[in-house]
């Protein structure tokens, strides 16, 4: 049985030791998680896309993965950029937003990770908390560590618990309603985009999971990084397994 082709929205990186020219890439941990689940990941090179072009591009794939990464341009959700915002790439944002709208039209199974959940929320008219360190969670302030001390540098991640709403696509995919997750972010979901519903939160109340409620849609976003602990936590790998299962 052939492996279903899984589109992974790629990034552009500067030339260096690996290549004399810029490179288009996807993170190895995402690719490995897809491979373990039985999919064949292919990296999509960022470019300017019309909606029609995005639909045509994704029509040959069984599912879509949106990776974590730098911050979404606040202009896209009607706000001015605040000091903690980093790594903004407006063209990358527009590329991924085009993919989101195309995937929804095609009802293409989609897993959106960390930045990915934020990008989906913005694409559907939602807004973001630009820096969760500026938010007063009351008695729960500081209870949850959402990023390691050296964020955004380094490869380490924080660990914290999330509670998942029972009988949701996310809980069924994970096989649990409570999970210990790898976290590496300083922004969060604020106003929820059209068609999305909150299906997971951390102990401080921050949104950790969204899914699309439309008929025939399997679009799940998680604020954490399931691929980072997928080799040791079966529930995290199960999320990628569920994505690939949707292609069959």
Automatic annotation (TrEMBL):
GO terms for cellular component: cytosol. GO terms for molecular function: gamma-glutamyl-gamma-aminobutyrate hydrolase activity. It holds the Pfam family Peptidase_C26. InterPro entries: Class_I_gatase-like, Peptidase_C26, PuuD-like. This is Unannotated protein. One of its GO terms (biological process) is polyamine catabolic process.
């Amino acid at each position: 049985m052939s492996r279903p082709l899984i589109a992974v929205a790629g990034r552009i990186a500067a030339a260096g030791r690996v290549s004399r020219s810029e490179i288009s890439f996807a993170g190895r941990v995402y690719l490995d998680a897809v491979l373990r689940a039985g999919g064949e990941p292919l990296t999509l090179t960022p470019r300017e896309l019309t909606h029609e072009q995005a639909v045509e591009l994704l029509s040959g794939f069984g599912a879509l993965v949106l990776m974590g990464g730098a911050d979404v341009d606040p202009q896209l959700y009607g706000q001015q950029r605040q000091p903690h915002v980093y790594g903004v790439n407006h063209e990358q944002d527009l590329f991924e937003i085009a993919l989101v709208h195309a995937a929804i039209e095609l009802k293409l199974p989609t897993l959106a990770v960390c930045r990915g959940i934020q990008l989906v929320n913005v694409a559907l008219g939602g807004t973001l908390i630009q820096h969760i360190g500026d938010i007063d969670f009351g008695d729960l302030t500081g209870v949850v560590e959402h990023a390691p001390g050296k964020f955004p540098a380094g490869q380490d991640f924080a660990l914290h618990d999330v509670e998942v709403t029972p009988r949701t696509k996310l809980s069924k995919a994970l096989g649990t309603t409570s999970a210990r997750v790898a976290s590496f972010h300083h922004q969060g979901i604020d106003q929820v985009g059209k068609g999305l519903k909150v299906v997971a939160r951390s102990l401080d109340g921050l949104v950790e999971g969204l899914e699309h409620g439309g008929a025939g849609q399997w679009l799940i976003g998680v604020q954490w990084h399931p691929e980072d602990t997928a080799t040791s936590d079966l529930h995290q790998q199960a999320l990628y397994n569920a994505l690939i299962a949707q292609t069959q």
